[in-house]
Fold:
Amino acid sequence: MSENGKTKTIKVDYLARVEGEGAMYLKIHDGKLEDVHLKIFEPPRFFEGLLRGRKFTEAPDITARICGICPVAYQMSAVHAMENAFGVTVDGPLRELRRFLYCGEWISSHTLHIYMLHAPDFMGYESAVHMAKDYPEEVERGLQLKKAGGEIMSFIGGREIHPVNVRVGGFYKVPSKQEMKEFRPKIEKARDHALETVKWASKLNFPDFEQDYTFVSLHHPDEYPMSNGRIVSNKGLDITAKEYDNHFEEIHVERSNALHCVMKENSQSYHVGPLARYALNFDQLPASVQNVAKEVGLGKVERNPFRSILVRSIEVLYACEEALRIIDNYQEPDVPFIEMEPKAATGYAATEAPRGFLYHRYEVDEKGDIVDADIIPPTSQNQKMIEDDLWKFVPQYLDQSDEKLQWHAEQAIRNYDPCISCATHFLKLDIKRS
Amino acid sequence: MRAKTLIIGIGNRFRGDDALGCILADRLQTLSSSSVEVITHSGEPASLIDLWQEKACVILVDAVSSRAKAGTIHHIDLQAQGLPDDFRSYSTHAFGIAEAVELARVLYKLPPKTIFYGVEGKSFGANEELSPEMTAALEDVTIRIKQEIKEAANA
Structure:
């Protein structure tokens, strides 16, 4: 923090309770906010380069390494893109199992953010550890719920972090009907915890801050979106993943390793994640979940980003309900995966990571070797949106102490559960020779 | 019967010296028995807390980066003290081992004996081998943990 004349600069070099490492910079001059930016300084990710020359079958295992919090999202986008390239559709029980696995990740990742990272902001604590001293039952509930999500990932994915059972075409091994049935009680208990979480989150105090966001998410007519659907917005967008590059672009920001995504039509930011999914897919939620949402005061669209913690809790409840539905309807597939022959092609896919949709594009040659890869994570897509929120949210607190101002700004950033580790995948080469 | 002693090697096999915990766990697998369990783990805190429930003795082994000399072995009795702040910065995630330990302490879930061995790493680059300093420290830590296991068995 520094003061020079009437100019005040607030620099937060390490953003706490954000996945990965980031920094925030606010410049205030004559009582007005003059500059805002997030700075990313974790070493860039080289995964797109790493993928080139590798077999198409390796993509799910390699991309799972990009993030320890949402590896399933990377795996799902990778397998769907490869299957898109080869013209293969994975349906029936294998599709259901993928959805089941994704439920595990949503439960685990969302719960981590709700209880351990975001709730302390609303409860006035420095961290979840401090909060746990006064609210041990709540934190314990968060741990139990997160554990249930992790158990789904271990059960279907082989292990919780970086699952190893996912392959292009399906899985290496699938559970029996009996094994699925025996797993059910764990999810029943998780559903109870999820319902309590929704009620608890609804009682938090939320700042009054609504924005006219351009929400973008997948949309599927028959289900709340995870791995399938078209990319839509509340402002008229309706495209396939293949058309993504025609409508969105990444801009390299000099001060940051990350890329900022904007819509090509107006160079404006857009909002991905739970608020967007919820706003664009409320009608696809089961009636039981819709009713809970209504009971806790949520409308069909929620435009206050601070209430994303509540929408996240609704999605956790949905993921538990969906996991139970999948268990009850499960029929063991005849084969654990569909074989496919590679051919020279380009495949596209977008799936819904907990933080928002995750786009993958792969070009493969006739032997199935990856020629080119493009991975656009949700945090890249939300970064400019976060800065835009800060521009609008921070000014009302400029008369407060720097400590309080920083608190409010960090809370606003955490609304997006930014996973900055995933977002920094841009390599800028600067070679000097002497 | 659940083993009463749990050795947890934490790290990433593909990130140079960060692989220490995993390699050490591989080495100690031969000591696995009905009373001793040896596992590798990514460091994800919620599952860590769950793993060490009902254990009499838990030994965590991880590479750290606290600006000490490469290969330095830090031995910390976590019942007596928390992990130093310097050990937190190497984590790529906001909620890591230090938070898991403190959360477990607050929730009365920290095992009666919880020991952390942190070995100062030198390089954490992708696909790198263990540095010579880390390789040397690995021998020392292995001997010390074997001794810890013996002591736990006699406790």
